[in-house]
């Protein structure tokens, strides 16, 4: 404990030792400050509770407007920005508070948040001074009234002080054998409150990974030495006993079956506790898409059998949904699609989705538009929480340049998550089709067994900045009508690297290769051959425009292909980005790609980030075009190109 302590209102005086209790409180507050952002809400005594519409201003009792100025003469630009973001007075400046009492309450709360922001930046000598209408906040009487002209002036002056570094670091109790440097606590290193809190969480996590659910920090001694601008940290940790899972209790279910929800957690009673399994169980429940939120809470003591009870709190989503979407390309025309779905058909998170689409609008004649419609059913948990049964029925009528195609296809199969990153699937499919292509008119009845393996450790599926995804696909197929048999193989990989800590620059690469073996080109249905070109592969070229063509110049597809793409995704703002890119691809009538005839396209794209994925517009030109290729291509859609 420090030799002496003092009451503070906005900072610590030079040469003093930081009181442990206040530092702990500010550490906790700093996390809230870092995670929160200004949001309009219902206001009472200067505190906003909910809502966002300016129409709510009318509900504020005795509305009082104010104007804020923030000065921090010894802070750098980054710190000034953090302080402005932490200030609720600044963030809510366009909305009135409820009277003079509301303004004073908001100012006192703001001072605490600003001090917390200073601590998060390791500024433990920082002092925050707030005046309202020229009077210091602490000198205002509780019944003070601000009757001057509005807006009432509010001045915030911040003396940031020096930046502290870590001094002496000690881990005691059951953490005594751990190395503090492994958790970011290094003498001379970052002394921000967030760094200390992160280290605490990681130390406790290490002990919990040993199967000890009750591990916790039992004592903290945190002393700021203002003579040396260092922060001494002593943490005492109790590991607690090794335990298994006890009873799993689910609350909040309405239309989703409660026992099924418990089953899908996969937490078997008596099995040794693991924080990673708890995290995986939460992700598994969210992946069912029937819950808005899922919270796991471990009991604070073991049950009579020495196991840890687990509580699960969920809130359900609306079961029905529908939507509309579209894509556009100057080479492929306009495409429209619609869908309707149910997330919880029979109470066990069964999914039913019906969708339909029309494409080629503006590019094809009305009689040559492309249509498809389908129905899909999924049932999770059929042979364990990691499994999923699926079945689908789909009909297609399409007229791309390479062929005219009508088909009816049904399939059923099973997917299984080997772990959080790896998924395998197998299905059985039967496809009846009538196709007219360069080889004439054909009727097929193809029985196939598609097999797939996916490894995916990307940090985001909508807009990844790190990690990679690898797909391996094999589809043995047999034409019941002609007796032809063939094997379709495909591999695809994509990788993403952030070139800076803020992920403002992300390098994205994709490569794909495929081959069909076992029969000749004309025995493979045209819709199962490989094609390249268009918005989803090599931009700048027409859809299916790369590869071998017949004597009329129409593509015939191939038995092999190769594609690769490189993008530099540059974030201009939080929502707008630009993407220069280069694509390349080739298609061959042989089972091995012909790398001597590779088509290359290059261009630039615009991205607008939304909660459901980036909106994408790409413009590209072919770099080694043939006379039949377009001079440029423009593509629009939802989601990154890969």
TrEMBL record:
InterPro entries, per this entry? Bac_surfAg_D15 (IPR000184), D15-like (IPR039910)
List all membrane-crossing ranges: none
Which keywords accompany this UniProt record?
A: Membrane, Transmembrane, Transmembrane beta strand
Give the UniProt subcellular location, in the record's own words: Membrane
Q: Which domain of life is it from?
A: Bacteria
Q: Does the keyword ATP-binding apply?
A: no
This protein's name:
Outer membrane protein assembly factor
Task: List the source organism.
Answer: Mesorhizobium jarvisii
């Amino acid at each position: 404990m420090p030799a002496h302590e003092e009451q503070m209102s906005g900072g610590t005086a030079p040469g003093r030792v930081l009181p442990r209790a206040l530092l702990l409180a500010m550490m906790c507050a700093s996390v809230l400050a870092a995670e929160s952002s200004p949001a309009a809400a219902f206001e009472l005594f200067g505190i906003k509770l909910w809502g966002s519409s300016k129409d709510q201003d009318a509900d504020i009792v005795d509305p009082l407007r104010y104007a804020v100025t923030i000065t921090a003469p010894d802070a750098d630009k980054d710190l000034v920005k953090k302080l402005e973001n932490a200030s609720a007075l600044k963030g809510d400046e366009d909305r009135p508070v409820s009277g003079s009492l509301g303004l004073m309450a908001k100012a006192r709360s703001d001072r605490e948040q600003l001090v917390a922001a200073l601590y998060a930046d390791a500024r433990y000598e920082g002092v925050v001074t707030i005046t309202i209408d020229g009077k210091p906040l602490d000198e205002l009487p509780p019944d003070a009234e601000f009757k001057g002209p509005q807006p009432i002036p509010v001045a915030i002056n911040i003396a940031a002080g020096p930046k502290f570094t870590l001094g002496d670091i000690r881990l005691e109790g059951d953490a005594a054998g751990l190395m503090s440097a492994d958790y970011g606590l290094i003498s001379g290193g970052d002394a921000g409150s967030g760094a200390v809190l992160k280290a605490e969480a990681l130390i406790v996590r290490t002990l919990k990974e040993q199967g000890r659910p009750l591990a916790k920090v039992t004592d903290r001694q945190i002393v700021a030495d203002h003579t040396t601008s260092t922060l001494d940290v002593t943490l005492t940790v109790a590991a607690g006993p090794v335990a298994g899972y006890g009873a799993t209790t689910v609350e909040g279910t309405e239309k989703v079956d409660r026992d099924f929800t418990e089953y899908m957690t996969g937490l078997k009673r008596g099995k040794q506790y693991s924080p990673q399994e708890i995290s995986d169980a939460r992700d598994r429940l969210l992946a069912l898409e029937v819950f808005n939120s899922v919270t796991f809470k471990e009991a604070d003591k073991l049950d009579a059998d020495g196991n840890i009870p687990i509580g699960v709190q969920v809130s359900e989503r609306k079961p029905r949904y529908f939507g509309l979407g579209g894509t556009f390309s100057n080479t492929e025309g306009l495409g429209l699609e619609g869908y309707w779905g149910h997330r919880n058909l029979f109470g066990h998170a069964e999914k039913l989705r019906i969708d339909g689409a029309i494409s080629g609008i503006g590019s094809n004649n009305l009689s040559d538009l492309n249509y498809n419609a389908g129905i899909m059913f999924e049932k999770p948990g059929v042979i364990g929480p990691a499994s999923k049964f699926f079945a689908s029925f789909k009909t297609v009528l399409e007229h791309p340049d390479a062929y005219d195609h009508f088909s009816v296809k049904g399939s059923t199969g099973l997917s299984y998550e080997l772990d959080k990153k790896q998924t395998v699937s197998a299905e059985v499919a039967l496809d009846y089709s009538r196709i007219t292509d360069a080889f004439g008119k054909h009727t097929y009845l193809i029985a196939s067994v598609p097999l797939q393996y996916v490894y995916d450790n990307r940090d985001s599926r909508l807009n990844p900045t790190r990690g990679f995804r690898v797909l391996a696909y094999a589809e043995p197929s047999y034409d019941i009508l002609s007796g032809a048999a063939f094997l379709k193989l495909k591999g695809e990989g994509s990788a993403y690297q952030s070139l800076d800590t803020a992920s403002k620059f992300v390098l994205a690469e994709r490569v794909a290769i495929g081959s069909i073996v076992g029969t000749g080109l004309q025995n493979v249905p045209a819709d199962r051959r490989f094609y390249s070109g268009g918005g989803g592969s090599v931009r700048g070229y027409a859809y299916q425009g790369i590869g071998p063509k017949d004597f009329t110049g129409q593509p015939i597809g191939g038995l092999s292909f190769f594609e690769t793409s490189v993008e530099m995704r540059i974030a201009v703002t939080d929502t707008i980005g630009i993407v220069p890119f280069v694509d390349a691809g080739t298609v061959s009538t042989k089972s091995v790609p012909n790398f001597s005839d590779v088509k290359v396209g290059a261009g630039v794209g615009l991205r607008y980030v939304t909660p459901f994925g980036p909106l994408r517009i790409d413009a590209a030109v072919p770099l080694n075009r043939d006379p039949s290729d377009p001079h440029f291509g423009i593509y629009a859609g939802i989601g990154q190109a890969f």
